[in-house]
Structures are given as C-alpha cells and as structure tokens.
Amino acid sequence: MDTSSKENIQLFSKNSMQPVGRPSFKTEYPSSEEKQPCCGELKVFLGALSFVYFAKALAEGYLKSTITQIERRFDIPSSLVGVIDGSFEIGNLLVITFVSYFGAKLHRPKIIGAGCLIMGVGTLLIAMPQFFMEQYRYERYSPFSNSTFSISPCFLGSNSPLPISVMEKSQSKINNGCVQTVAIIGPIFGFLLGSLCAKLYVDVGFVNLDHITITPKDPQWVGAWWLGYLIAGSISLLAAVPFWYLPKSLPRPRRREDSNSSSEKSKFIMDDHTDYQTPLGEKAKIMEMARDFLPSLKSLFGNPVYFLYLCASTVQFNSLFGMVTYKPKYIEQQYGQSSSKANFVIGLINIPAVAFGIFSGGIVMKKFRISVCGAAKLYLGSSVLGYLLFLSLFALGCENSDVAGLTVSYQGTKPVSYHERALFSDCNSRCKCSETKWEPMCGANGITYASACLAGCQTSTGSGKTTIFNNCTCVGIAASKSGNSSGMVGRCQKDNGCPKMFLYFLVISVITSYTLSLGGIPGYILLLRCIKPQLKSFALGIYTLAVRVLAGIPAPVYFGVLIDTSCLKWGFKRCGSRGSCRLYDSNAFRHMYLGLTMILGTMSIFLSTAVLFTLKKKYVSKHRSFRTKRERTMVSTRIRKENCTTSDHLLQPSYWPGKETQL
What we know:
This protein is mainly alpha-helical. It is 58% helix and 5% strand.
C-alpha cells in the first residue's frame, strides 16, 4: 500500500503467468466476451485499491485531528503526543522495505489484504483505552456548582481552617489516478470526521450532558476522540475483503505480449512460464531475490541524484509533518478557535488546496512535456516560493490573552516576569488558593484569572455555565470603567483584531499549501526517471521508508518538545505529576512552530538546489558522451562507405553511360 499505486496496477494487470495445465488459446482478434473477465477483475482491483487508499488516508488524517483531544483526555504534554503520532509510522520500519522488494513477486492482492486487516485492528485498538478508563474529569469551580445559593469562592484564612490539600480534595470533578485522488479525499474526510467528533463530549452516551458545565470552546473540553477510530478501523477491515478473492495476476492482453517495449515488470520480474505453484521453484526465486537485495541497495545509494533527492525530500517532509501535526493546536492556541473549527477549516480548505496543487503539477508536466531538468526546476521553484509565502505568517499572530500573574500583572500592566509565586498578590493573600488549579474566570475588566479564588471573589450566584462571581478584590484593582468587580466562568476572548488575523492566516495558508504541493508530481517524476527501470519498485520502497522513519516518526516528537517550552501554565494530575499545558505564550509558540518549519524548509531548498546542479552536470556529461559517440559512428560510417565505393570501382568497368549520375 505504501508503494506507488500506479505500479500496483501495472504489475497486477501485466503479469501473464498461468498455472500449469491450463491451455492457452491465441486468437488474433479476441472477442469482447474474452476480454470481459480481465477487465472486470481489473476494475474490481482498482476500486478495492482506491478504497484502501481512502481508508488509510482517513485514519491518518483523523489521527492528526485528535492530537489536542488526546493530550487533554490523558493529561499529557505535547512531546508525548508527538511520540504517539510518530508511532503510527513505526510499523513501516520493519516491513516496508521487504514488502516493496518481495511484494511485486508474490501474491500482491493478498499482501494488500493482510495489510488492511492489520491496519484495521490497530486502528480499533487505539480507541480501546476509552472503554477501560474512568470518565473524564475536568477542573471546575466548587463542589456545589449545581447550587443556586450564594457561596464564597475565596476561603478566607481567618474564617476557614481547611488546609490547601484538603480543599483541593474537596473539589468535585465530572467526568492515482483515481487512486491518488481518493488518497487525497481521505484526509479531507478524516479532518471533517475529527471536527464532528470534537463537538461531541468525550463521554457521550455515558453521562448526562445537562450536567456538563463546559463548552467546546473551553480549553478543558475533550471531544469524542475515540468514535472516529472505531469508524476508521471498521472501514479498513471492510477494505480488506475484496483482495482475498482476487487472483495473483491477470492475463495480459495478447496484442501487448509481443511488444518490444521494456516495462519495469519485464525487467525486474522473471516472466517465464514456470510453474509458480512449485515450492522448490518459489524457494529458489526467493533466495535469488535475497542475494540481489544488497547490490540493489548499493546501486540506489550510489546514484547521486537519487540520494540527494531522498535527503531533500526527507528534510522537507520533516517540516511538513511537524507543521501539519500541530496545526490544529496552533490555530486553537494562537487564534482562540475551538478544536472542532480548527479541524473543519483544515479539512475543508487546506487539504483541497493541496489536492489541487498536486493535480496542477501533473497537468503542467503533461501539457508542456517537461524534461527531467525541468521537473527539478519546478520542484525547486515551488519550494522556494512556498516557503517565502510561509514567512508572512510570522506577522499574522495574536497577542497573548491577558491572564493575571502570567501575561500581565494583577494591576493590568505588561510585561510580567513569571515565577512560582506570580499567581499570588496582595489582593488574594488572605485567600487559601491553590496555584496548581486551572479554573479560569473572566473578569469584568477583560483580564482572565487562573481561578475565582485567585481573583479574590467573595461570593457567587448561579450554577454551572451561568455562574457569576461577585466582589472580586483583584478585579477591582484593575477595574473597568464601569467599576464592576465581578466575573464569569471561562476565559476572556482574544482581542478584537484576532478574528481578522485568523482570516488572513487562512488565506496565506491555503496559497502556501497549494504552492508547496505544486512540486509534488514533478518531484515524483524526477524520482522515477533518475533510476534504472528495474529498480523503480525498490527505490520507491526505500523512499517511502526514509520519509516515514526519518520524518514521520521524529518530527512530531521534537516539534512537541519545542512547543512545550512555550507553556506558561501547566496542569497537574491527581497524583501530583505534571499534566498537559493549560496556557501557552502565544508569541513563543508562534516563533517555535513557524521558525522550526522555516529552518527545515530552507535546508531542503539547499538540498534541492544540489539535486538540480547534479542533474545538470550528469545530463551535460551524458550529452557530450552521446555526441562524441555519434561523431565516431558518423566517421566510421563514412570510411565504410568510401571503402565500399573503392571496391565497387575496382570490380566494375572504368566507364559506362550514366556512371556519374548513378554514383
């Protein structure tokens, strides 16, 4: 499944092996009835392969959309989420090279079917922790939040003998063609499915939703992340069914059997009519293929164009994998959007732009019949222009939300230096507050407080989402013009200019996605044309392995580690260990996320430039060699003609009528 779909189709349809004992009837003009079985099976194979690509892409896209949900549900940092995301690719490390090498020689449909079964079961297993863990509990204000009585969030030291530890425990918590096109459609549905599931509460069907006091916009909200994995896993299992009923090969059309064209299969696979059902013959073939493995690998890495392109692609995919993995999180933290909306815009806007870019690159290559050097130039040009556009995103960020003690002082001034006791001030010194709690309250002055207790609120009315806090001493210090010292549950919204910045971000992001993906097909063509035909399948397997292992696995991890360094307020688990981040420094997050993507992109541009220069040098050298050989051939031909003319002159009379004309 990880090698080219085009090769899957070609190798499957061109194979002409037949079991022993089955007669072969040749007709010069085969009837339509004789063509139907072959065409029917090929259509089934195409449809099944398209469905497999859709299922695979759906699962991968959905995994990216649930990153923030998993982080909050299990209370883990971004670096650990990156490990989980990267582990999705670890299985390729063990099998992809050998599958790409031996898969073209064995029963390919059954190999694909087995891969679908493994993928489906694995996807279903991802959702299993939801059914073995207790219900989700989020931090919320007061064990009496369902009460409409006036209660005191601030436990005054003179009136309450409760120590902080007892007070914390008393807090209540609630729980290709068409194949490549389908492969692009898969992530779209994956992110849209992620958007839908993010709107549903994580324990939907297990709890009374009327008792849930947070909304999808709340930073503590966790959607039904597990539901999409059940759907994606079931689709993968269904995709495996057709492959178990397909033959190992389809009969090749007779009109193509005697063609002199040199296909990859005819060179890379021994196409004699040997009985492939003989165990000894199969064993001999496998041993022969195994002996050729290391020489083939050496031949690939000895090709400078292939090696440099492999390095350039690996570095570029590091930047792209890291960027895509944390893009929903970036949208949430930078622009204050909900997880559902972040997944929705990525699935409905960004991924179609990528699909259109890939399609446009293919059209350009076909219409203008671009050479290998032209493909390398187009690949390089799209990268340069794409990352130049990406630079503009540095200016399209939102400022930090005003959070007392974290981004602003309790007097409302900026900046503030964060330290352990920064959350405490004179206005809340009499309150016995916990600095580990994150129960955000939005004051009437537009400043967010880590909790109503840290805001110094004396009383509260209402319940759940409608709770209002009154007589908040810290709010009064930096009071609004109205002098109101009250507050309400939840964080304050970002500044008024943030929605406009988010719109600009979407526009630039779409253009950048289109531009970068424009070089996808030219790069793929460059990869195929720079290697020997008999090594294409193996080269694609090594390429896919390198991209997934050296980019797909590590990129989410080190991106997550750097993102964690921008955290201002960490949550804590009930056991006391550090949990997930509650509040990020928006400026630091933006610089870390965009800066690392830009650095890796620049490195890939330099490597792509080296690919172009190496290709040009190799092309010029071959051209000169060809021209020299051609000149030698012309000289040899001229000498041969002269010798032939001299011989004819000696054998014929010295003169006959019309001699000059004939000569």
